[in-house]
């Protein structure tokens, strides 16, 4: 928790740069003709979920890579910076939004990523908390539909009325994701906290090149492993 005031969830942040022209345009285009905050937020959710490819290999551990407008321009990200973009786009349309984090055991991974991580726990998994109809509603715009299809998972939908965290099982009934501990909510992406945690928990991943992006095709790896099961 960062002790932010409610108004901080409306304002631009250093990383949740909701006033950036590209973010403003993205939010406007995603909202289309919708004016109801729930409808607007849902449209933004799907625009972020499916408009940006989920790629855990493509985000270097640098502050600038976690800026919402940078993620948007790259057209890819992972749970943390995609959640940041959703929060920024919601704020750009006047909807309060913040970032939430949790430690999860995520089975939507690949052998290569697991080897780099040295763990099956994803620390500081990111989601977006959106203020709708007088309460906070959780949304997780991380995994695009094209990716979940390759992993043989049902895509995670969101209607703006109920929390949408992640399905516990895949299409074959295998356990997919378990939430282990919540890390609190923030007005902006807490990069220094994430940086310290990732270097502590994933020393192999961030020792090889000082935090540079790993590179690779996560979707192709997942599709190949799903086909071999």
UniProtKB/TrEMBL annotation:
| Entry-linked Pfam families | Transglut_core
Q: Which InterPro entries match?
A: Papain-like_cys_pep_sf (IPR038765), Transglutaminase-like (IPR002931)
Gene3D superfamilies per record: 3.10.620.30
Q: Where is the Transglutaminase-like domain?
A: 71-143
SMART domains annotated for this entry?
TGc
Could you say which residues form the signal peptide? Answer: none
**Top-level lineage group:** Bacteria
Record protein name field: Transglutaminase domain-containing protein
Naturally occurring in which organism (per UniProt): Vineibacter terrae
